[in-house]
Q: What sequence folds into this?
C-alpha cells in the first residue's frame, strides 16, 4: 500500500539534481523552500530535511515569520514523522524546529520545569497520542455508563495536559484526533456495544472536538484524513507491532503538511484569495469560440455538472471569507457574458472581487490582482486547467500557490481541499464579510479616480474610526492581524492568543483596536497598537503598531496617533517611544514616525532598529477628516 | 531479475535511506556492518523495498532475517511470485 501523496504539488523532473545543487549561503533557504514545494515522497522528504540541516544551522536572516519550536508529545514512535513537519514548514517559508521528550516521558516532562521540554521553550505543542494508549482500559463487556465515564475521564485528563502546556509556554496547543485503528467486533451496529474499541475511538474523537473548542485548542483531524484516503494509507498494523509506528512512514509528508498548515494558520499565513481561470476551468469549452450556448455548464452533461460543482465549491469558499478573483485570457465582453446571461452559472459577478480578462500574460495580471486587492502574492491560490499557464505562473511568481489540477474537473474540489490552502483555525466576523469589503474597496478606488482633490475625496468617504481597548470580542481578529500583517507593521512582533488575553487583563498596557467605517461599508478592524511602560519611567514604548494596507492613504495614521496620545495621557504617560524594526517587507513604514512628528533618538545601530520620541506635554492633535468614537459598551 | 539488478535496487534504497552513497551491500553484511542501519531506518528500508518491488513482507518473515543475503533472497522469492 502506498502512502497518501502530495498530489496537488508539481513534480519537476530535475528534483534530485536540484537537491544536489543546493549550496550554503543566502540562496540556500529559497532553494530548499522551492524543493519542498514539489510532490516528494517520504524518502525525498528525509533527504531534503537532512540537506537543510547540513546547509543551515540557523533560520535565514530577515525572515518575515518567527521561527516555530514545535514539541510533539506522543506515546509511541513519532521520530519518523518529524522531517515531514520540518519540510512542510519550508513549503510555507517557515523555519520549524521540533522536539520530542524521551520515550514515555510526555506527562512528566510537562510537569517538570527542569525537563528538556522546558529548555526547548516550545511555541507550539502537538499532543499526538496513539489510540492504543488513550483507550487502554476500555473493554467490551462493561456497561455503557462505565464506558462513557471512562471517555469523560480521558477527555478531562487531556484537558489538564493542554492547560499545563498552555500555562507553561503560552503557546498554540494542537490535539490530534485518534486514528480509527481498531476493527469492529460485530459490524454496523457497533455503537450498541459498550466498550467496543472501534466505537470508543469515534466517541473520544467527538469528545475531543467539543473540549478543544471550549479550550481554544486546535484539532489535527487524522480521523478525517483516514476517512478520505483510506485507513490503510495511513496505518499498517504490521508497523505498529514491529515499531510502534501508528502513522505509516510513507504518510509522513502528508502528516507533516497537515501539522504545518495548523502552525501557519496560527500565524495567519493561510491563503486568502482564489484566482480562477475561466475557459475550461469554470465551464467546459471556450466562450469566445463556442459562445454562450456552446459552453458546457450545468445539467445535460456530466462535465457540465462537474463545472457547476467546482463553481459551488469556490462560491462556498467565498462565503467563508476567501476572496475570489478572475484571471483569464479573453476579451472582457466575452468573459463576462456567462456571468450575466448563463442560467447555470453559480458564481455571479458580485462574487468576484477583481475581474481580469485581457490578453496580457497571467503572471502580470496576477501581480495586478494582488495590488488591487491589497494582499500579498503569497496569499493567492491560482487555479487554471492549462498546465502551460500553471508552469509560467509558478516560474514567474513562485510565491503564488498553483495546484496541479487533474484532467477531470470532477476531482478539483477534492484537490483544493487536500492541498489545505485555506486552513483556518477560527472564523472571525471579518472573514465572513471580507468579500463585500473588497468589493466596496474597488468602488472606493473608482471614486478616487474620479475625485479631483485628495481632501475632497477623503471627506466624501465620511470615515468614522470606532476604537476600543483590546477585548474578548476582538481577540481572535487581533491575534490574526498581528500575526499576518507584514507591510504596514513597525516591529513585526508576533503574539499568541494567550499574550493578547494577558494584555486584555493588563490595565497599565496601552492597547488599541480600531475599526473603520466609511460611506461604502465597514472595513473591519484595520489598526492595532500595543504600548507598554518602560519600567521605572513615564515613557510608553510602542511595541506594536500595525495597520491594514487596505486603508492606506486615508490619514488613518494621524487618527491612530491621536487616539494613542489620548490613552497614553490617561495612563499618566509623558513621552511616547516609537520603534521601527526593518524586515524584508516593511520598508513602506521606515519613515512612519518622523512623518508623524517624532524625533529620532540616537541609538546604537542594532539590526537597523531605529527609535523615535514624541513629548506629549503641549502636543496638539493632528488634523484629520476621520471622526473617532469609542465603541459603545 | 539478475542478482546484479536485485543488489543494485537494494543498494539504491539503502543509500537513499541512510544518506550514504558509498554503501555497497554484500550478502554476508548485517546491520552491524552498515552505519546508520538502526531500527528506525530499517523500517524505512523495508517500506521502501515493499514499495519499489511491489511486495509485502509478513511480520514473522522480517524477524528471521540474519543478513543482507537472506533479505535479498526473500525479496527475490516474493517479487518472483508477484510476476
A:
Amino acid at each position: 500500500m502506498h502512502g497518501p501523496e502530495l498530489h496537488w504539488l508539481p513534480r519537476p523532473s530535475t528534483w534530485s539534481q536540484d537537491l544536489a545543487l543546493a549550496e550554503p549561503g543566502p540562496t540556500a533557504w529559497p532553494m530548499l523552500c522551492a524543493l519542498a514545494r514539489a510532490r516528494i515522497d517520504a524518502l525525498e522528504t528525509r533527504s531534503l530535511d537532512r540537506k537543510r540541516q547540513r546547509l543551515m544551522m540557523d533560520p535565514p536572516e530577515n525572515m518575515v515569520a518567527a521561527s516555530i519550536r514545535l514539541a510533539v508529545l506522543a506515546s509511541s514512535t513519532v521520530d519518523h514523522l518529524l522531517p515531514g513537519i520540518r519540510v512542510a514548514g519550508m513549503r510555507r517559508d517557515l523555519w520549524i524546529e521540533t522536539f520530542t521528550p524521551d520515550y514515555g516521558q510526555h506527562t512528566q516532562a510537562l510537569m517538570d520545569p527542569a525537563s528538556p521540554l522546558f529548555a526547548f521553550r516550545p511555541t507550539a505543542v502537538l499532543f499526538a497520542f496513539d489510540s492504543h494508549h488513550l483507550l487502554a482500559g476500555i473493554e467490551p463487556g462493561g456497561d455503557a455508563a462505565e464506558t462513557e465515564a471512562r471517555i469523560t475521564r480521558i477527555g478531562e485528563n487531556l484537558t489538564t495536559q493542554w492547560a499545563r502546556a498552555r500555562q507553561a509556554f503560552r503557546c498554540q496547543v494542537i490535539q490530534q484526533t485518534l486514528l480509527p485503528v481498531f476493527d469492529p467486533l460485530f459490524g454496523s451496529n457497533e455503537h450498541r456495544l459498550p466498550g467496543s474499541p472501534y466505537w470508543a475511538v469515534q466517541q473520544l474523537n467527538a469528545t475531543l472536538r467539543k473540549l478543544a473548542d471550549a479550550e481554544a485548542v486546535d484539532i489535527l483531524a487524522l480521523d478525517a484524513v483516514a476517512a478520505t484516503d483510506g485507513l490503510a494509507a495511513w496505518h499498517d498494523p504490521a508497523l505498529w507491532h514491529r515499531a510502534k509506528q501508528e502513522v505509516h512512514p510513507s504518510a509522513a509528508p502528508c502528516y507533516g503538511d497537515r501539522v504545518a498548515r495548523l502552525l501557519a494558520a496560527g500565524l495567519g499565513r493561510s491563503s486568502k484569495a482564489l484566482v480562477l481561470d475561466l475557459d475550461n476551468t469554470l465551464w467546459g469549452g471556450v466562450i469566445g469560440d463556442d459562445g454562450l450556448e456552446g459552453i458546457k455548464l450545468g445539467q445535460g452533461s456530466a462535465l457540465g455538472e462537474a463545472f457547476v460543482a467546482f463553481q459551488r465549491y469556490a462560491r462556498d469558499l467565498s462565503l467563508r471569507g476567501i476572496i475570489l478573483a478572475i484571471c483569464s485570457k479573453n476579451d472582457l465582453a466575452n468573459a463576462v457574458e456567462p456571468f450575466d446571461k448563463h442560467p447555470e452559472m453559480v458564481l455571479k459577478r458580485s462574487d468576484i472581487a477583481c475581474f481580469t480578462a485581457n490578453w496580457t500574460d497571467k503572471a502580470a495580471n496576477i501581480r495586478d490582482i494582488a495590488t488591487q486587492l491589497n494582499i500579498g502574492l503569497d496569499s493567492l491560490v491560482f487555479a487554471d486547467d492549462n498546465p502551460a499557464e500553471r508552469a509560467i505562473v509558478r516560474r514567474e511568481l513562485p510565491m503564488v500557490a498553483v495546484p496541479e489540477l487533474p484532467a477531470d474537473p470532477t476531482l478539483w474540489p477534492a484537490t483544493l481541499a487536500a492541498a489545505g490552502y485555506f486552513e483556518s483555525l477560527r472564523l472571525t466576523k471579518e472573514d465572513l464579510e471580507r468579500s463585500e469589503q473588497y468589493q466596496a474597496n474597488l468602488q472606493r478606488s473608482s471614486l478616487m479616480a474620479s475625485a479631483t482633490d485628495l481632501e475632497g475625496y477623503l471627506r466624501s468617504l465620511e470615515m468614522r474610526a470606532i476604537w476600543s481597548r483590546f477585548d474578548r470580542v476582538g481577540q481572535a481578529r487581533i491575534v490574526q492581524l498581528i500575526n499576518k500583517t507584514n507591510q504596514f507593521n513597525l516591529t513585526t512582533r508576533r503574539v499568541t492568543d494567550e499574550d493578547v488575553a494577558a494584555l486584555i487583563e493588563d490595565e497599565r498596557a496601552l492597547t488599541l483596536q480600531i475599526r473603520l467605517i466609511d460611506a461604502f461599508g465597514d472595513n473591519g478592524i484595520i489598526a492595532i497598537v500595543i504600548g507598554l511602560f518602560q519600567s521605572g519611567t513615564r515613557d510608553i514604548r510602542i511595541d506594536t503598531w500595525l495597520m491594514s494596507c487596505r486603508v492606506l492613504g486615508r490619514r488613518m495614521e494621524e487618527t491612530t496617533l491621536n487616539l494613542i496620545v489620548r490613552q497614553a495621557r490617561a495612563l499618566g504617560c509623558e513621552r511616547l517611544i516609537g520603534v521601527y524594526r526593518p524586515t524584508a517587507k516593511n520598508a513602506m513604514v521606515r519613515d512612519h514616525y518622523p512623518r508623524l512628528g517624532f524625533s529620532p533618538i540616537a541609538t546604537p545601530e542594532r539590526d537597523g532598529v531605529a527609535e523615535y520620541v514624541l513629548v506629549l506635554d503641549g502636543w496638539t492633535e493632528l488634523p484629520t477628516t476621520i471622526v473617532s468614537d469609542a465603541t459603545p459598551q | 531479475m539478475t542478482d546484479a539488478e536485485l543488489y543494485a535496487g537494494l543498494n539504491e534504497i539503502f543509500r537513499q535511506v541512510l544518506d550514504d552513497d558509498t554503501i555497497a551491500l554484500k550478502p554476508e553484511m548485517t546491520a552491524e556492518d552498515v552505519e546508520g542501519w538502526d531500527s528506525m531506518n530499517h523500517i524505512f528500508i523495508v517500506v521502501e523495498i515493499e514499495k519499489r518491488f511491489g511486495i509485502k513482507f509478513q511480520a514473522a518473515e522480517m524477524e528471521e532475517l540474519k543478513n543482507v543475503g537472506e533479505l535479498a533472497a526473500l525479496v527475490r522469492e516474493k517479487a518472483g511470485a508477484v510476476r
